[in-house]
Amino acid sequence: MRTVAVLGGGAGGLAASYYLCRSLQVTKETCTPPTPPSQVILIESSSRFGGWLKSTRRPDSAVFEQGPRGIRPAGAVGQNTLNMVDDLGLGREVLPVLYSHVASKNRFLYVNGRLNRMPSGLRGLLRTTPPFSRPLLYSLASEILVKKSKEEDESVHSFVSRRLGQELADLAVDSLCRGVFAGDCRKLSVRSCFPPLFKAEQQMGSLILGMLLGSGSTATVTPGPLAKKAKKESWAQWSLRGGLETLPESIAEYLQRSGKAEIQKNAPVKNISHSELGWKIQLEDGVVSADHIISALPAKALACVLPPSCQSLTQMLQDVHAVTVAVVNLEYDGSILPVQGFGHLLPSSEDKGLLGVVYDSVPFPEHNQPDRETTRLTVMMGGAWFQEVFGDPESVTSEHLLKQACEAVCCQLGVKAAPIWSHVSLQRDCIPQYYLGHSQRVESMRSFIRSRNLPLSLVGSSFDGVSVNDVIFSGRAAVEELFGV
């Protein structure tokens, strides 16, 4: 294998390129087979790298996130990302939020027209806490008696209703799925969206036993110094001083410095074709030849460029849908929050269009203006309900989205003042939706690739997890499968 082309310069494509370049260095130093590629080509259609990781940095040093704003350090995938951050020399730029921090302890649901703090700790489980009608411990204690399902897959809502009760499914889990996936828990797959829960039931017959005895991911990563520090200090999440876009920027700089990767921006892929000689990747201004392709493109984008011989794969890729989210960053003068915490979510029964509000200034005050007290918020809207509530994403105006966001902050947080600064971004098709049967679909895609001996790897949020950690780890896994390093 001489040349590997990586399609897509978001977190998945950058990670794959990073691990490819590291494999070149590792195998060169240790003479470890198999031989790595002699050339890595990263192809990105836009003028920037990072995909949905995007940070607005104002001249006054305030930072606002248009995409993810915090990354969890837990598990193998979390440790893997921290190892990468360490290797890139970003350790001193990390902003950790500990489990003891108010942003970790206080998370709210907006139900029945009021903010409700989610129960936490043993005392919270023992007491009846609005909006729930009975102590959560009752649901947890009775869960162990629920019989295991024989179905291959199940919606998140059905799974939680069956094991923990409909109230938890309708309020807490509905809100959670809107916050994480901007999706409808009645359509999302528990097997693909929450694999540890599905495995706990299948392997242990109970979520409680699964949590106590372990039934999570089998992946293992040796923690580096930063990952060990995160565990020792009990980090709940972390960001970077210049915003999370610092991470893809640093990976791109690493690739350029390494001299092992050719980087092409503003180079949308028109089509790709395959023969015994390898791949031909048609760009607007030329053709790139490659022996192997690692695609980090969204599923539908890859479907649009595959050759006719991959019709079955094309159809399966087209079945992976994604939703559009409006992200409205707001800044208010002074301290205006009635409560302190990470933010609040809303179940779909409360307001379909509004997913939640993040109190950005609480977990990451370092991103505030240094010389003036302000409060930064982010309002998330739309998702699976975008078309129903706001209409065609191509037609909705920024003014309308801003008005809706400000009204939500006024109504739900009691903030009467107008924001002193705002930024509206419409993230089209930004979060893939893992509907029922998603894991089987992805396995069928990879079976098609194997059966035809296609030199093609699929990475990114369309397949094996939507979090930043999952996407980065998918890039590593693809490179390990190819070269074993």
Task: Please outline what is shown here.
With 485 residues, the chain is of the alpha/beta class. 38% of the residues lie in helices and 22% in strands.
Keywords:
38% helix, 22% strand, 5-stranded parallel sheet, 18 helices, single chain, alpha/beta, 485 residues
Structure description:
With 485 residues, the protein is α/β, with parallel strands linked by helices. The chain is 38% helix and 22% strand. It has 18 helices and 19 strands. It has helices spanning 11-30, 75-87, 102-105, 121-126, 136-143, 156-164, 166-181, 190-193, 195-204, 207-213, 225-233, 246-258, 299-303, 311-318, 386-390, 398-413, 438-451, 468-483; strands at 3-7, 39-43, 55-57, 63-65, 94-98, 108-111, 114-117, 235-240, 261-264, 269-275, 278-283, 286-290, 292-295, 322-333, 343-345, 354-358, 374-383, 421-432, 456-458. The protein has a 7-stranded mixed β-sheet. The longest helix has 20 residues, at 11-30. It is globular. Mean pLDDT is 93; it is low at 27-31.
